[in-house]
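Loading example: each entry is read as two labelled lines plus one structure line.
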Amino acid sequence: MRIRFASFKLAAALAALLSLASTSVLADKTYRLNLAETWGPNTPILGETTRHMAAMAEKMSGGRLQIRIDSSNKHKAPFGIFDMVKAGQYDMGHTASYYYKGKVPNTMYFTTVPFGMTAPEQYAWFYYGGGMELMEKVYAPHNLLSFPGGNTGNQMGGWFRKEINSIEDLQGLKMRTPGFAGEVMAEVGVAVTNIPPGELYTSLERGTIDALEWVGPALDLPMGFHRIANYYYSGWQEPGAEVQFLINKRTWESLPEDLQEILRVAMRTAAYDMYSESTHLNSLAWQQMKEEYPDVTHKVFPPEVMDALRAATEKLLKQEAAKDPLTAEIVESQETYLKQVRKWTNISDKAYLDSQPALD
Amino acid sequence: MRIRFASFKLAAALAALLSLASTSVLADKTYRLNLAETWGPNTPILGETTRHMAAMAEKMSGGRLQIRIDSSNKHKAPFGIFDMVKAGQYDMGHTASYYYKGKVPNTMYFTTVPFGMTAPEQYAWFYYGGGMELMEKVYAPHNLLSFPGGNTGNQMGGWFRKEINSIEDLQGLKMRTPGFAGEVMAEVGVAVTNIPPGELYTSLERGTIDALEWVGPALDLPMGFHRIANYYYSGWQEPGAEVQFLINKRTWESLPEDLQEILRVAMRTAAYDMYSESTHLNSLAWQQMKEEYPDVTHKVFPPEVMDALRAATEKLLKQEAAKDPLTAEIVESQETYLKQVRKWTNISDKAYLDSQPALD
């Protein structure tokens, strides 16, 4: 009886501990996610961002959340991220929303829009001005969650071998510029071509094309365009290009709440950090270009050219908005927000920058 | 014997489980930190930032990291955060580094400097250009860690009842403007006064002062200055004011690695988010001011005035740098970085903003 009683107490304690232990075992379960990125291996800035995000998530979770990253050499589908994550072939992706315009036209608006918002304006729109909710509306029907994934900063208008002094100088000009900006360029008479990245330098050097647009100093420098084109024009087509993290909805829902929050915050910080790193590396690369190649000259398109490009952009956006109510809602939200936030930018950063002495 | 053997097996299992359970209990230990903020209760933007940070940290840690926040009505020492966190009276603080200039002169440079960097430029400097390392050098001797804690964006130059058309218009002008900017203003002849926030409106209305500088539209709107002063000048004195999180070093070292990372990333995200929220709320408030008070006019100081303020700033910074090698190192780092990054800002965001049509 005494023994049975002792055994009973031991058994009860055992049961209680088993319950405690199984809770801990569950809480300590390791979640392994696979992420496919559009970028090739060791891509500066963009590729660093996925690794930075994964490292923060792993450290914050004490190793419970592990994210393996496949670059495009592994999965062979740089522009198939949307489909692979939707199908659950990968849990996550890192890509640019506007690559999927052909499949889901409304994805376009969440990277950047010609004559749109700068990076700080766009982050304000995403997080406080309704942008996240609109992005969710576009991605939810595909069982995807989408989050801002890093900003390149204001992209440059491109490298030109001749100065552009009028709209006539653009007409018939052979230029590599992809996506929506390419459509706008075509509207004003540019002979738009697309050429694989590996052939860009030779094409520009041999005159197969007269001009091209890539990203900004940090990513343009290793391409070497500054050695064969003197005029580097300020941009209008991607004033704050944000890439995206995509997550399969079932993967997201399989994560406990703490890991969801760790993942959400790691992505958010990595995205902001990419903008800071882009600012840093663009400034370094621009300095280097100018030191090594004093012939490289910064230019802005004359007002006549900017007006024509702006009119073409507005025409095409109006056409898109007429096709679909959700497109109309997104375009309206961005235009209204831009007008409001730009007035503030104008009396703050713009007024301040305009009042400072020239540095060159 | 059988009973003893069964008991032995039970006891062994029990011991194993106890060991497992005690590990889990340790891992599940709740850390409760106390944070003192400079701000009063329910302060918009600044006070939201501490709560946002604490909420992220709690959720990411599954409740293991809990941060209680005391506003200034509780601790009664809005400008004593540095001392209280250093002494361990509080584990953490949320304040502006430059409030402690009188105690540790080098703290001044980590909030903002007249004619210094904008928020995106300064984040690039902090995280990629050596700023964090310099801030650590200043805070480490006080057993404090310091992290960026949120940016107000570009602060406005202030509310003036008369237009400023020349440097003579500033001479003898009675203006409330505290800190280093006040010293610069005094250099060009302004009669600088400091007045408690609660008396500012009445002082301006009754002409005890002719002008004042507060923050920007979002925090100026509730103060009501736009009802009694028509001229709202763009700023030069705080082009990207960053507040700070301070942490007591022993508190930091008492946290396990995963919670350190959770805290670090929560602070980093909350800081960036404050900049996005400031951008959003400043744009809303500026729109509201203009709609409700059409007499409110945006102004920029004439170049002559800006040149005088810039020369006075450079003179004072040179004086400070001569006093202490670490000051010289910080001033040199900021000036060199500004020159590099501003050249990039000028060909990207500034060129883009300058090319856009006026919105008013």
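Residues 257-292 of chain B form the longest helix (36 residues).
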